[in-house]
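We emphasize that the prediction below concerns an isolated chain of 50 residues; any contacts that depend on oligomerization or on bound cofactors are therefore not represented. The input was used exactly as deposited, without trimming of termini.
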Amino acid sequence: MDQQVTKINIDNPTILFGLKVRTCNMNEMSGEGAKIAGLWQQFYTDIAPN
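Result of the prediction step, given as a token string:
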């Protein structure tokens, strides 16, 4: 198994915010138990306005 390493250089101090959720492709595609759309909604209402 190949591994990729990504190096990110940040010259200025940066604060990152994020949310996470565990899901599977089958649930997201069927709409039943989908979590990603709700995660985006939570991000845009709770995190992005700040």
